[in-house]
Amino acid sequence: MNFRGVIFDMDGTLIDSMPIWHEIDIRFFAEHGLDVPEGLSEMVNKMSMEEWADYFVREFPIASTPAEVIRRIEEMAADYYQERIPLKPHVPELLDLLDARGIPYGVATATYRSSAGAALKRLGILERMQFVLTAEDVPGGKTTPAMYRQAAALLGTAPEETLVIEDALHCVQTAVGGGFPVAGVRDACCPAEEWDEICRLAVCSGNSLHDIAVWLTATGAGGSCQSEHLHRM
Q1: Is 57:69 a contact under the CB 8 Å cutoff?
Q2: How confident is the model over 174-182, as a mean pLDDT?
Q3: HEC readout, 163-186
Q4: Which contiguous run of DSSP H or E holds residue 230?
Q5: DSSP SS3 for 75
Q6: Can you say whether residue 222 is alpha, beta or left, with left for phi > 0 and alpha for psi between -120 and 50 degrees?
Q7: CB 97 within 8 A of CB 213
Q8: Are 130 and 106 in contact (CB under 8 A)?
Q9: With bands split at pLDDT 50, 70 and 90, how would you rate the model's confidence at 112?
């Protein structure tokens, strides 16, 4: 594996945003006088925005269109991304390493463009990214490898030489299915059984971006390497 570019996930990888989505689910359902079904957050995390909106309109008795659902969720998420969500530990460390090695990088996220841009700008890393791709740019989000392929095209790299850094199993599976090597970084919201599968699929995995930086440093951030799992739990 000869890495010439890096694609970062955002939620759960660069920013600590995963817990807020359960809060948004609760608030959104409460607005419609509904209780959140058990396991809903885990299910919708694997959906694109369009799939989630279609599901909600189809399954629950509300007088909203899918477009209205998408717009309302975006409004509810805006405050979190503009004001509250913190950067994950060791992000600057890893970006500095990539800059020092001349390896370009960007973001591919299923989050709304307005929320992604607001959070990354507030946290001081937006200008460091070559691009920010969202589900508004690539229909279907990360349900297919199309977003990763478009990101690699923007980097000017082939899939096999483009490292994807992800925290969610379904996204890891999509990237691997598209021919991308993946580094898995553990988020506190990731169930143990999903983390075990991420470790199996990834070329390396760790509890933080520091672990990924250590691994990249050890491999020369672009030289040949073997699969390695750091601090596996």
Answers
A1: yes
A2: 97
A3: EEEECCHHHHHHHHHCCCCEEEEC
A4: none
A5: helix
A6: left
A7: yes
A8: yes
A9: confident
- Report yes or no: 109 and 133 within 8 Å, Cβ to Cβ: yes
**Dihedral pair phi/psi, residue 206, rounded to 5°:** -160, 170
Q: How many residues are given for the chain? A: 233
Percent of the chain with pLDDT over 70: 93
Separation of alpha carbons 37 and 80, rounded Å: 23
Contact indicator for 17, 80 with CB cutoff of 8 Å: yes
Count helices and strands in the chain by DSSP H and E runs: 10, 7
pLDDT confidence of residue 149: 97
Q: What is the mean pLDDT of residues 133-141?
A: 88
List pLDDT tens digits, range 56-67.
888 887 878 999
State which amino acid sits at residue 138.
V
Alpha helices of 32-168 — where are they, by DSSP H?
A: 40-44, 49-59, 66-79, 91-100, 113-122, 146-155
Query: Which pTM value belongs to this model?
Result: 0.85
Distance between CA atoms of 132 and 81, rounded to whole angstroms?
15
Distance CA 66, CA 47 (A): 14
Q: What is the model's pLDDT at position 97?
A: 96
Q: Biggest alpha carbon distance in the chain?
A: 56
pLDDT at residue 233 is higher than 80: no
Beta bridge partners of 204: 183, 228
Chain centroid to CA 122: how far? 18
Type of residue numbered 226: Q
